[in-house]
Structure formats: structure tokens, C-alpha cells
Design goal:
Layout lengths: L2 E7 L4 H11 L6 E6 L6 E5 L3 H10 L6 E7 L14 E3 L3 E9 L2 H10 L10 H11 L4 H9 L4 E9 L5 E7 L4 E4 L3 E5 L11 E4 L5 E5 L3 E4 L11 E2 L15 H7 L1 H8 L15 H7 L2 E6 L1 H16 L4 E6 H4 L10 E7 L5 H12 L5 E5 L5 H5 L2 E4 L12 H20 L5 H22 L2 H11 L4 E6 L4 H15 L2 E6 L16 E6 L5 H13 L3 E7 L10 E6 L7 H20 L17
Parallel strand pairs: 15-16, 15-17, 17-18, 18-19, 20-21, 20-22, 22-23, 23-24
Antiparallel strand pairs: 1-4, 1-10, 2-3, 2-4, 5-6, 6-7, 7-8, 8-12, 9-10, 9-11, 11-14, 12-13
Helix pairs in contact: 1-2, 3-4, 4-5, 7-13, 7-14, 9-13, 9-16, 14-18, 15-18, 16-18
Bound molecules: 6-O-phosphono-alpha-D-glucopyranose.
Length: 605
């Protein structure tokens, strides 16, 4: 998704801006650009290639300045061309970078056309540029404040004007923006990572805030125009680019980091004590009668898995809903429900909006399962469970997913204990199983060579079907999502019992059918579903447990998981599916870490 960096300093800030863009690259983008302020007007360089290419352009042109803004763009309105890349200008006087979507851009454009403004890009951003320009009367801060009142939708912006060569103005609503305080310079950015090191401390802007960043300092006002104090927090120095080590891609590295990530996520002691979720958790947990989980993408599938655990272990009614659906639907609010949001980034626009929607409906008990301690989501909820996956660079989530599952399992057992459904003996067994997970995962990762062999077959296919039952249906969904995200093979997942109600019509020799087949209560039923596939000539690729009696034969390929893992089995079974998608994508030669059209952190609707 789009990323913003802006800086005012006493030195040339272009290297800081480019470095900031480089650190935002992981979010996904399709073009980038940088502008500096000069007395003659803003000057810019833009590229539809990588930030490294923009850096070459900048170096060759000796592009330098003390005040500037920069951007990575993930196209929403208008194709990813140089002309649509930000910074966007208004009449060679003003430049703007923007993250978000302006919903009323069409009516604003008509009004501005009426005032003689010409539009040269297809972006919604250009209306903000002209709107601010039309309101400018010598004070950029005032013009931006007036302009944002007319905007509907989501935005974070950075703006410069030729007549104020040492000022950057920022504003946010719906998209994140931080201001950074440094020595000899001040900054704005989409996240702290982009400016860590240059900025010693950062403040998070709140909804509706407008800020003015100059050499002297930072001024912030809230939506109503009142001066606002936003706490400044120290930022840790940037720890450097995450090294790839012996791996070909970040995704592969992150798959192999899962034993470490999981072990870091399991609390060292008192794992099932409510205090893991916050000081007031015990009281909150005692008062709730159900759970509503809200999330997007892979995090949503973690929620679907958690439903099985919460209902079977904690005996608490659980609903799981896609955040973008929940936020716009009329629902029946339950003030006694615990709203659980799941998010790797903690910045996903739809999940944040769904959370705020639930809060606005009177659901005050909220808990975030999140990988970023400083994210908007963690700041918005009263309780939280932090996963310790470490930075995830690959757009397709892997280690964040399995650590979310660990957090959600801990939540289920904690609630189960509190509600009297988990005996001391069971608790002990769950803890042992959790603690043994990293070792068990290492055993699963050792299956990689066998999965590489399968991936050669998959790379030649255009469609694939994934089947699972019960706890492993969400894992089948996640396996299909991984395959389509990075290898661009069309993949769908079904609960195996639904096979006869539609997907069986698709099964021919050309359709590989991946089956997640742990040795659980549903195995016999699953075996019947597999026979239905074989009878139609479908080729089965089965992930079975060590003790599952399914043998390889013509049309049935079996990989055995090293151990049977009971309730926690989804955490193991998803790993070979991640590896299958990864190696299939490598064979097809796709850009695994940055799949086309996708972004790591979806900060627009
Ligand atoms: C994007 C990413 C996915 C992720 C989803 C939700 O689509 O590409 O990997 O699962 O957003 O993101 P979140 O940060 O809220 O977990």
C-alpha cells in the first residue's frame, strides 16, 4: 500500500526520503517518487520501477533539497504510470503525496474544473492538490485544514508549497501518519520504521489531525482546530534491512522462522493466565457471553480456526466475520460479546473500521491479536495479545498466521479454564503440546524436499482444489489462498463434505486435489470424499498424519506428517501448504515476495 515520507532539515534530505521509501517497500507498491521544494516551484522525479531505480535517477541528476516529500504508490485511481505517480502537483506551486481514497473526488473535480483547474492525471489525489491550491492565501497549514474538511473518504497526506520552503504540512483520517522529531530536522511518515534513526521520537497523529512540520518544531491541531498534544515516544534505531541469509526469498525465510516465532510467542510462564491479555482481562473475560472475531485475509482464516477452539475448549459461542462485510451490514450488537480483531500489521483499514463500528454499536470489550505493538489496532483495543513473529516482509503471510493461531489457542484455553471447562490435567497437556510445537514444526519443515517434488507437478496446472474438514477446513482455505496469491494458479478450498454440492463437477485428470487429512474423528468421512475424487480421475495430493492409513497408489500421492497433533494440528498442517505454494511459485518464476497487485498492509478500503 502507499507509503509517505516527508522531511524538513538543514541538510540535503533526499537520501533520508529515499531510505524511508526503501523501508516502506515491503508494504507493496507499483510506482514511486520524490519532490523537493525550490523557490521556482517543486521539482520531482518519479519511477514505475523500484525505489532503487528512483535512487539512481536522483543520484545522476544530483537532485537535492532541504525540504521534500516522497511516496510509494499502490494504484487505486488510475493505472501505475509515471504520470499518475506521486508527488502530484498543482500549478507548479504545490506538491502532495497521498495514501487513501477520496470518495467525493468526482464532485470536487467538477467544482475545481469550474474554477479553471486542469487535471493531468487520473488520480483522486489531484483533486486534493488543486483544492488546497485554490484555498491557499499564504498559509499552507490553514489551507490544508480548510481543504480536509471537504474530503470524504480516507487519507494521509503530505504537502509542500514553493512559497514556504521550510514547511511540510500533514493530515490524516482513516490512513496512518506519524510525525518524527529529530535533531536538525523534523519528519512525517506512514510508519515509524520509515524515519527511525533520523527521528529520535515520534508522535502518532489521531483521526482528523493536521500538523505543520518546520525546522523549529511540529504544530498539531485536532479535527476541531484546537491545539493538540500527541505523546512523543522514543523510536528504536532502525535495525537494518532484514537479512535473507541462506534463503532465496523472505517468504521462504519466514516459513523456516516459524519454530522460533512460535517459541517467542508462547509466554514464558503462566501461559493461560488472563493477565497475558491485559490487567483487566480476568474481569472482562468473566463478563462476556460470546465472541465476535473480525479480520481480513489470512488473519480471517486464523479466526475461523479459532472458532473451533473457542467453542470446543472454552464452550463460548463464537462468530467470525470478514471485517469489510461487518462494517457495512446491519447487525445485532451484543454488548456482552468480546470483539477480537486479528491482524498482522494492526493497520488494515477494513479491520480498524470494523472495530470502530463495533465500538460505536456499544461493544466495549475489545481485544487485538496483533504483531505490531505500536499499531493503531493495539492502541484502539482495551486488551491485546502480541504475537512475536518479528517483521514479516513477504506479502503472503506465513509466520504471522501460525503465531496468531498460537495466541488464539492460548485465548481459548484461558477462557476455558476461567469458565471451568479445562481441568488441571488438560491444561498441563495443552501447555506441553504448545511447548513441543517448535520441535514438531522442525519435523514438518524437513518435508521440504518431498514438497518440492510435488510442486513441479503443480507448476504445470492452472487450477487446484483444496479439501479439509472441521478444524482443517480453514487450513485448506489458507492453502488455496497461498497458492493463488503467489503462483497465480486458480485455487479454491471446500469443506470436503460439500464436494458433492458443486466442486465435484470440476474434477478431471487435470485437477489436482490437495487434501488435508489428519487422523481425527472426521478421517473416515474424508476418505470417502477422496474416493469420490478418484472415481472421477482426479489426482489426490494428501497430507496425512504418521498414523493415518492412507497409502500412496496410482492417482494418490501421500506425504506423512511426522506426528499427530490433536487440537493444535492446524498449526502443523498449514506449513506444508505454505511450502507447496512457495515452491510452485518459484518454479513458475513469479515475484514471490511481492506478488502482482497485492500489498502487505492494506491501508485503504
Ligand atoms: C493483505 C496481506 C495478507 C494479510 C491481509 C490482512 O491482504 O497481503 O497477507 O493476511 O492483508 O492483513 P493484516 O495485517 O490485517 O493481518
Amino acid at each position: 500500500m502507499c507509503g509517505i515520507v516527508g522531511a524538513v532539515a538543514q541538510r540535503n534530505i533526499v537520501p533520508v526520503l529515499i531510505e524511508g521509501l526503501r523501508r516502506l517497500e515491503y508494504r507493496g507498491y507499483d510506482s514511486c517518487g520524490v519532490a523537493i521544494v525550490t523557490a521556482a516551484g517543486p521539482q520531482r522525479m518519479r519511477s514505475v520501477a523500484r525505489v532503487a531505480e528512483l535512487e539512481d535517477q536522483v543520484r545522476e541528476a544530483r537532485f537535492e533539497g532541504v525540504t521534500g516529500i516522497a511516496h510509494t504508490r499502490w494504484a487505486t485511481h488510475g493505472a501505475p504510470t509515471v504520470n499518475n505517480a506521486h508527488p502530484i502537483f498543482s500549478r507548479d506551486a504545490l506538491a502532495i503525496v497521498h495514501n487513501g481514497i477520496i470518495e467525493n473526488y468526482e464532485s470536487l473535480r467538477e467544482t475545481l474544473r469550474g474554477k479553471g483547474y486542469e487535471f493531468v492525471s487520473q488520480t483522486d489525489t489531484e483533486v486534493i492538490a488543486h483544492l488546497i491550491h485554490s484555498l491557499y492565501q499564504g498559509d499552507l497549514f490553514a489551507a490544508v485544514r480548510e481543504a480536509v474538511q471537504q474530503l470524504a473518504g480516507a487519507y494521509a497526506i503530505g504537502v509542500v508549497h514553493k512559497d514556504q520552503p521550510h514547511t511540510v504540512v500533514g493530515a490524516r483520517a482513516g490512513s496512518p501518519l506519524v510525525v518524527g522529531h529529530g535533531e536538525g530536522g523534523n519528519f512525517i511518515a506512514s510508519d515509524a520504521l520509515a524515519i527511525a534513526g533520523s527521528a529520535k521520537s515520534i508522535s502518532y497523529l489521531e483521526e482528523g489531525d493536521v500538523c505543520e512540520v518546520t525546522l523549529e518544531g511540529v504544530r498539531i491541531v485536532d479535527r476541531a482546530g484546537n491545539p493538540a498534544e500527541r505523546v512523543a515516544r522514543d523510536v528504536q534505531a532502525y535495525s537494518g534491512a532484514v537479512e535473507l541469509g541462506p534463503y532465496r526469498h523472505y517468504m521462504q525465510k519466514e516459513i523456516f522462522e516459524q519454530p522460533r516465532a512460535i517459541s517467542d510467542t508462547i509466554p514464558a510462564d503462566a501461559a493461560f493466565d488472563p493477565v497475558q491479555f491485559g490487567d483487566t482481562a480476568a474481569e472482562v473475560f468473566r463478563g462476556i457471553d460470546s465472541i465476535l472475531i473480525l479480520a481480513c485475509g489470512t488473519s480471517y482464516y486464523a479466526g475461523l480456526t479459532a472458532k473451533y477452539w473457542l467453542e470446543s475448549v472454552a464452550k463460548i459461542r463464537t462468530e467470525v466475520e470478514i471485517a469489510s462485510e461487518y462494517r457495512y451490514r446491519e447487525s445485532v450488537p451484543n454488548p456482552r460479546a468480546l470483539v477480537v480483531t486479528i491482524s498482522q500489521s494492526g493497520e488494515t483499514a477494513d479491520t480498524l473500521a470494523a472495530l470502530k463500528h463495533a465500538q460505536s454499536l456499544g461493544m466495549e470489550q475489545t481485544l487485538a491479536v496483533c504483531n505490531v505493538a505500536t499499531s493503531a489496532m493495539v492502541r484502539l483495543t482495551s486488551l491485546r495479545f502480541l504475537t512475536h513473529a518479528g517483521r514479516e516482509i513477504g506479502v503472503a503471510s506465513t509466520k504471522a498466521f501460525t503465531t496468531q493461531l498460537v495466541g488464539l489457542f492460548i485465548l481459548a484455553v484461558t477462557l476455558g479454564k476461567l469458565r471451568g471447562h479445562v481441568s488441571a490435567q488438560q491444561e498441563d497437556a495443552y501447555l506441553k503440546a504448545l511447548r513441543h510445537l517448535p520441535a514438531a514444526l522442525n519435523g514438518v519443515l524437513a518435508l521440504e524436499p518431498q514438497i518440492i517434488a510435488w510442486s513441479q507437478e503443480f507448476a504445470r496446472k492452472e487450477n487446484a482444489l483444496f479439501l479439509g474438514r472441521g478444524l482443517h477446513y480453514p487450513i485448506a482455505l489458507e492453502g488455496a489462498l497461498k497458492l493463488k496469491e503467489i503462483s497465480y494458479i486458480h485455487a479454491e478450498a471446500y469443506p470436503a463434505g460439500e464436494l458433492k454440492h458443486g466442486p465435484l463437477a470440476l474434477v478431471t485428470e487435470a485437477m489436482p486435489v490437495v487434501t488435508v487429512a489428519p487422523n481425527d474423528a472426521l478421517l473416515e468421512k474424508l476418505k470417502s470424499n477422496m474416493q469420490e475424487v478418484r472415481a472421477r480421475g482426479g489426482e489426490l495430493y494428501v497430507f496425512a498424519d504418521a498414523d493415518t492409513h492412507i497409502a500412496s497408489e496410482e492417482g494418490i500421492h501421500v506425504i506423512r506428517m511426522p506426528e499427530h497433533y490433536g487440537l493444535l494440528s492446524p498449526i502443523l498442517h498449514v506449513v506444508p501448504l505454505q511450502l507447496l505454494a512457495y515452491h510452485t511459485a518459484c518454479t513458475r518464476g513469479t515475484d514471490v515476495d511481492k506478488p502482482r497487485n497485492l500489498a502487505k498492509s492494506v491501508t485503504v478500503e
